[in-house]
Amino acid sequence: MALSLENVEALAPDQASLDAARKLLKPAGWPALASNGAGLVWGECQGSGATPYRVVISESDAGYKCTCPSRKFPCKHSLALMWMRAEGRQTFADGPVPAWVNDWLSRRRGPASEAPAASSAKPKASIEATAQTVPEAESDPKAEARAAAARERNRLEREAAILNGLDDLDVWLTDQLDRGLAGFAAQSAQACRLITQRLVDAKASGLATRLESLPARLFSLPEAVRPSAALQELGVIYLLSAAYRRQEELPAELKADVRQAIGWSFTREALLAIPDAVRARGTWRVFAALSEVQVDRLRRLETWLWLEADEGTPRFAVLIDFVPVATGAASGGYSVGDRLEAELVFYPSARPLRAQIVRSLTGAQTCDAPLHLPDLSLDAAYRNYEEALREQPWLGVWPFSVRGAKVRRQGTQLFLCGSVQNAVPLALPLQPAQSSLAAPLLQLEQLDAVGLWDGYRFNLCWAQTELGRWVNG
Amino acid sequence: MNAATLKAHALPALLAGVGRQPLSHRAILDELGHGGDPATALKILSLTGQALRFERPLPPPGFSIEAGITDIQDRRPILPDPMRRPLLRLLSGKRPSDDLALALAWAFNRCKIRPHPFDLPRLDAFVRAHAELLGRTAQHWAEQQKDTAAQPRGYFDADQIDETTWKNAPPARRARYIAEQRKQDPAAARTLVESVWTQESADARVRLLAAFESGLNSGDQLFLEGLLKDRAPRVRSLAQRFLARLSGRSGEHPALMACLERIRRSTAGLLKKRPVLALELPATLKEHEARGWIRETFAEVSCEELASALELTETEMIDAAEKDANLLLALAWMATQDGRLDLLEQLTAGPLADAWEQLSQCGVPDLAMMPFDQRQRWAAILIGPYGVKPPASYPAWSWLHRSLEGPAPEVLIDSVLRSPRWLGQLLDDNKFTAEWMELLAALCRSSHRARLRALIAPLDPPLTLTALTLLDILDSMEKAGHDERTTTAP
């Protein structure tokens, strides 16, 4: 059954959704549009997040799925795809059904036996009504000036609030030092709660999140390491606090790093408007897709990318999205192994890593080809990390690419090891959660690997071996 | 001041608490301020933390020795890459049905394919449950996952076994090997069994002894007499039965005596008297327990023994039992266990046309001793009477799948393909579930898969997605297995 505009109207949860869907009908916003010729239609839509949303609809029963965090069903992206399909003006490429569409098909329950009774109180959404566009308000220079002044006032207030919060943070840190850090981990949950609340009030949300998640990070480490790890983490927090107070003395990139770490953020528009922001265009491969629920009930979705052609630009990039846990979205738009042609803009940083997609030139394609990793030993990759740490002392996770490594085991703990020819061979402990999944790699003499090092554990994300590709998760 | 100074003098104070152990080292304080200033302590904290961050992780004193790929020597080809993800979706998504997992495990064994080593952790439950069917690497994995400190052992997966390697094979395969050897040289086969007897578990001993059924002769007597003192009651009982058969005395066969106690014999007919047999079930037996009782009671008795004890030929025995459904079922079960397909055919062609459904309620028979062709013929005999209307009972189909451990004879899927009304009726009755589709796919032979795919593809995707994926995987496995054999054959 082909979709009609009447179907789209009937499915729309409200008029606002249809209005929003109309704005998405431009083909430029859809780097990929395809169908299998048998009722399945899918596409990728660049929204406000770092990664495009993946949308699929089933024409036969008007089923739909979108990776956006919207709580409206169907969301504007699904409606827009149905609308484009119903109008028939866009060209949908014929192609094999991608794995993510098949995954959705295998999980869906199928159409409800009876359509839910339409609520009489719900006003009917109409496509015709969306055409009656509200004329944009004419720009008023006085109003704009007032708004700009208000924004500046708010900024100054926030700067002052943060500085006050940092003073309290120093007092709290001094208290912890008085008591000693040997036993900090044991009472860290209670100790961090109060100062976290204070930093949230002071609008230093980045620092607050870092402190709030500190107890969990400490408890994920072996007990013997916890005092040293607590000392390192609190040292970094003080360093950020001190750097923020003296941010005017820092180089522009490092200053941007500090401000982001404290809690200042960029909107997509602001990021795109930075004239000298680092940009990289090329073919990117997804080598990791991580999902973590934060203490603030937001799910942090990280999509790690590797640039296939080395043109002097950063080879690694990470797209970060935050979605409320309640939306149920557990993964981002891309899957490990996907290849996409895109231009990325990096957030200003001494070591640019976090990025946003400026525009996708193609939709993501599943790809089995290996990554062409540079000839870098584990030792050399670790030296790169140390160099990055020198430039950015609060560095969190850092990506590694390694050639000729080996996975070895002691007890249940796995290690990524470098060449045995070194005098003191480097052995990075893998995440404990990987002890089972990465166990088959123990049988291999040699592998090339890509992963993330957080200073304590290596998260092996991708390995190229004589048996083919191994990926985490 | 350097990292070493900080670690030697500041670190202990920071850990113990500067309230108790003030920071007092001159080299540090000279650069950062006086010890009583809180800001100085925070600076020292930050610098010490940073010094620690630059410490490289120390390698452990030693690493475990691991078995490498070359040590395990798994010569099976790996499942083709395009099928890995579908396989993972089938087996690690929502709980897979038992028939689906079994179909895949048997297909791995049949095609001599193995799962990709990287997928073993994701398929952990499946691999542990069916390790013996999945090749050496999977066996090695399953062994490693066991909590018990089991002795390391070799992993066995040879295509051909002989007297030097047979003892490493899985129990069912060893029993089959001994049965084959018994047909050629019973004494040599007995010697093989005697050489391993004391190291075997009770289950394995029962299986090996059951293989003595073929080629049973007086030369076995001494060995069997020794088994009358075996610690497993099942071994003692089986040995006693064989000894009774050798001496021709049914009185020494307790299982046979138990059967005879329940069979009432009478005569019928006016001019020509003919025997009539009836089975009396115990009065305390509930209706749903009857099938299980029949299976247990007749499990250790062969058709030949029963007929001989009743002083009838086997054909006469079946004729005499034609009015008693329970006895007919017992005879069908015995004929299946004995591999007496002629008798089973007589039963299904005559009074027990629904033997498939009846037998399916008795549990899955052990057909390990039947060669593949004989098993297929056994199934064809059961299916035959149904024509184009196979039973619409999922348990009966599942039972057939588990009995055959693989695809059914072509005639079964033929009957489904030739009668779309049968499929339509199931759909109308809402009986047809995704599990039904999976079972159809599992039982379908490669020659019929394209037609089955065409038949079910138009149905609702949630109903057919798993079944269609299973068909793809089975096709791919057979192709890869076949290709491998043709390319490596001398």
Search tags:
heterodimer, A: 473 residues, alpha+beta, OB fold (Dihydrolipoamide Acetyltransferase, E2P), 4 domains, six-stranded antiparallel β-sheet, five-stranded mixed β-sheet, globular, B: 490 residues, mainly alpha, two-stranded antiparallel sheet, 27 helices, 59% helix, elongated, disordered C terminus
Which helices and strands appear, and what pairs or packs with what?
The complex is a heterodimer of chains A (473) and B (490).
Chain A: H1 5-11, H2 15-23, E1 32-35, E2 40-45, E3 53-58, E4 63-66, H3 76-87, E5 93-94, H4 99-107, H5 127-131, H6 141-179, H7 188-201, H8 205-212, H9 214-219, H10 226-245, H11 252-262, H12 268-273, E6 279-293, E7 298-307, E8 316-324, E9 339-346, E10 354-360, H13 378-391, E11 398-410, E12 413-417, E13 427-429, E14 447-453, E15 458-465, E16 468-471
Chain B: H1 3-16, H2 26-32, H3 38-53, H4 69-72, H5 84-92, H6 98-111, H7 124-130, H8 136-145, H9 171-184, H10 186-196, H11 202-210, H12 221-226, H13 233-247, H14 254-262, E1 263-268, E2 274-279, H15 290-298, H16 303-309, H17 314-320, H18 325-338, H19 341-349, H20 355-360, H21 372-383, H22 394-404, H23 410-418, H24 420-428, H25 434-443, H26 446-456, H27 461-488
Antiparallel strand pairs in B: 1-2
Structure report:
The complex is a heterodimer of chains A (473) and B (490). With 473 residues, chain A is of the alpha+beta class. Chain A has four domains: 5-111, no CATH class; 146-261, no CATH class; 266-360, OB fold (Dihydrolipoamide Acetyltransferase, E2P) (Beta Barrel); 378-471, Beta Barrel (OB fold (Dihydrolipoamide Acetyltransferase, E2P)). Chain A has helices at residues 5-11, 15-23, 76-87, 99-107, 127-131, 141-179, 188-201, 205-212, 214-219, 226-245, 252-262, 268-273, 378-391, and strands spanning 32-35, 40-45, 53-58, 63-66, 93-94, 279-293, 298-307, 316-324, 339-346, 354-360, 398-410, 413-417, 427-429, 447-453, 458-465, 468-471. In chain A, the strands form three sheets. A six-stranded antiparallel β-sheet of chain A has the order 13-12-11-14-15-16, with helices on one face. In chain A, strands 4-3-2-1-5 form a five-stranded mixed β-sheet, with helices on one face. In chain A, helix 10 packs across helix 11 (252-262). The longest helix of chain A has 39 residues, at 141-179. Chain A is globular. Residues 113-119 of chain A have low confidence and may be disordered. By secondary structure, chain B is an all-alpha fold. Among the domains of chain B are: 3-53, no CATH class; 69-145, no CATH class; 166-248. Helix content of chain B is 59%, strand content 2%. Chain B has 27 helices and two strands. A two-stranded antiparallel sheet of chain B has the order 1-2. Chains A and B meet through helix 4, helix 6, helix 10, helix 13 and strand 11 of A and helix 1, helix 3 and helix 27 of B.
